[in-house]
Amino acid sequence: MQPADLNLTTTIVGHQLFLFVTFGLSPDTGGADGEMTEALKLLGHGMENIHDVDGPPTEEVFKNGRYQFLRAETALTSDQQIEHPAVSRSDGLIRLECASLEPIRDYEAGLRTLIESHGGSVETLAGVQRPRSYTSYAMTQFAYAHAMPPGPGDKHQLAAVTPMNKTDAWWQMDFLHRESFFLPRYDENENMVVKGHSLASAAGVPGISRRLVHAPEGYGLPENYDFVGYFEFAESDAPVFREVMAALRDTKQNPEWKYVLEGPEWWGRRVKDAEGFLLRN
């Protein structure tokens, strides 16, 4: 289904690629392989390393592209309804973002050649950034005006990726019906009986930097995710992220989740450079 058919915005303001890397055999010398390290550095030439940046990118930087290296936190990653081993069992992630797709597709092609030549593999999740479709001015003030902005890796050490689909029943709903799931519901005596998505996730607003991308070709398509969520937070806020995800999955308080099928909840630790990304445990 296309956004215009669903009363959702059709505007694209940016592109993201999530490149989940599974390494091949470790070099005999142990540690990061020098050839791969230098090749990986060349792939990012002219792009901004997000790791040390505090706040959103400038227009010029976003035009050239940006990257962030993350090493997998395997013990924290969990499978959900949709099994996807190439994601859940990956060794690391390189997240790319850019105003246009071509620069980061070139990076992806170069990375795939590099990793596969060393016996590894790359699994790509792609998404486009769109303006918010379910957000009134009042909701913007509640959920986004005081939200945690992007921060450097020494401040937000951890990240989580949450790919998901909405069911056919969700996409068949009238757009006002879908929108109602984001707000609380009240009984005939004006008592709140359901929190809805916004209140269920409210605990994460001040301490978790969050981004959401949409499927590039439309929603409800096979072999694809409708959305990919990306969250960065301090180690001390990891319990808050778990609390938020538990609240969202509580269908009594957030009935929207009856219509959600999740891929793996992947956790990673942000690392500064190619050496840190390629370092074998």
Helix content: 25-40%
Task: Extract low-pLDDT stretches.
Answer: 27-31
The number of helices is 10
The tally of beta strands, per DSSP, is: 12
CATH fold name = Alpha-Beta Plaits
- Which percent range describes the beta-strand content? 25-35%
Mean pLDDT metric: 92
Cα distance spanning the termini: 43 Å
Sheet with the most strands? 10 strands, mixed
Shape: globular
Tell me what the CATH architecture is: 2-Layer Sandwich
Please trace the helix and strand order, writing H or E for each element. Answer: EHEHEHEHEHEHHEEHEEHEEH
Radius of gyration over all CA atoms, rounded? 19 Å
Please give the domain count.
Answer: 1
Structural class: alpha+beta
* CATH C-level name: Alpha Beta
Give structural notes.
Strands 1, 2, 3, 4, 5, 6, 9, 10, 11 and 12 form a ten-stranded mixed β-sheet that branches. Strands 7-8 form a two-stranded antiparallel sheet. The protein has helices spanning 34-43, 59-64, 85-88, 102-117, 137-143, 168-172, 175-180, 196-200, 238-249, 274-278; strands spanning 14-22, 48-49, 66-72, 92-98, 121-129, 158-166, 185-186, 192-194, 208-214, 227-233, 260-262, 266-271. Helices cover 27% and strands 25% of the residues. The longest helix is centred in the middle third of the chain and has 16 residues, at 102-117. It has one domain (3-278): Alpha-Beta Plaits (2-Layer Sandwich). The radius of gyration is 19 Å and the shape is globular. The termini are far apart. The model is unreliable at 27-31 (pLDDT under 50).
